[in-house]
Write a structure and sequence with these properties.
Layout lengths: L2 H16 L1 E3 L5 E3 L3 H9 L11 H17 L9 H16 L12 H8 L5 H16 L5 H5 L6 E5 L2 E5 L17 E5 L1 H13 L8 E4 L2 E6 L2 H14 L9 H13 L4 H8 L4 H12 L26
Helix pairs in contact: 1-4, 5-9, 6-8, 6-10, 10-11, 10-12
Length: 312
């Protein structure tokens, strides 16, 4: 029997065990045996007994999927049986009003509030540059920021850099012929990056690094550190919401929708290949600006109220 045939039932059982289902009595219950639940908690695989959050289940399946992609192995998470089970689970959760949560989108106004907190010396200069580099270049992922190096950065003029995104989630091979690999870092973002490079004396290697005291370290920030910077600046700015590294990416797309930027231009900046993925955020930003959303406004599209010639 192939390893695939052995692994697939275990994957399905993992999903069944770690989500909640509604019993005939109307209560919620997970199917994981109590003894096994205890072992997982004791081993540090779970924080507490009981069902995992739907977000956690989906995240763990995503990690498993990525591991198989990296090793070029058949991906069990793409099996039709697994996909159908996930669809049923999502429908069941949605019927109870539960949906996977997403990080709060960091649009222009809250971003500027976070930038205003970056006044704490060298750390503030770095964080100011990092936030703008990530957001203004199309909402870079935290892994792309932590792996950014000077060798991929070209200064075009005083207020424009081009960063070559040599490797990304959607371009695993870092193809040099990718026409969308060059990401602009312009205007305020370019000013902030120039200030950081000057203050840190960085000319080669990682762009964003750890800081010890008043000195810039040699090692780059980790992807986790990028997320922590976003969280810390959001807290300092007094922002309400669940902010994280992905807030920069979703916020860029949401703001582009608000400002009626063509979807193709937005996707060229972000590097999204799936229209379905980017449209979730794009539509969220654009929906409040559409004519249909403002039919009851004081000055409705088309001007005026009910024409005099219309008989009611």
């Amino acid at each position: 029997m192939s390893s695939w045939a052995l692994f697939l039932p275990a994957l399905i059982q993992f999903i069944v065990d770690h989500v909640e289902r509604t019993t005939p009595q109307g209560t919620l219950k997970s199917q994981l045996p109590a003894a096994l639940n205890g072992v997982l908690v004791e081993g540090g695989f779970k924080c507490a007994a009981g069902a995992l959050a739907l977000n956690t289940v989906v995240h763990r399946l995503s990690v498993l999927s990525k591991a198989h992609q990296i090793k070029d192995l058949p991906n069990p998470t793409r099996d039709p049986a697994v996909q159908e089970l996930l669809r049923r689970v999502r429908r069941a959760y949605a019927s109870r009003g539960v949906r996977p949560t997403r990080k709060t989108a960091l649009t222009k106004d809250p971003l500027e509030a976070m930038l205003a907190t970056c006044t704490d010396g060298l750390i503030g200069v770095r964080d100011h540059a990092l936030l703008l580099f990530c957001w203004a270049s199309g909402g870079r992922r935290r892994s792309e920021v932590s792996s950014a190096v000077m060798e991929n950065l070209v200064r075009v003029n005083n207020r424009l850099y081009l960063y070559h995104l040599g490797h990304s989630k959607t371009d695993q091979l870092g193809a040099e012929q990718n026409s969308n690999a060059e990401k602009p870092v312009a205007d305020k973002a370019a000013d902030a990056l120039t200030a950081w490079l000057k203050a840190s004396n960085i000319i080669t290697g990682p762009i964003f690094r750890r800081i010890r005291g008043a000195a810039t370290g040699a090692e780059p920030l980790s992807a986790g550190a990028v997320a922590l910077i976003v969280k810390r600046r959001a807290q300092l700015a007094g922002l309400e919401g669940d902010f994280g590294a992905h807030s920069l990416r979703s916020g860029f797309v949401t703001e582009a929708g608000r400002q009626n930027i063509p979807l193709g231009d937005t996707m060229a900046m972000t590097g999204h290949r799936s229209i379905q993925t980017v449209m979730r955020y794009f539509q969220t930003g654009a929906i409040g600006q559409t004519r249909a959303a403002r039919l009851l406004g004081d000055d409705p599209p088309g001007g005026g109220g009910t024409p005099d010639s219309v008989e009611l």
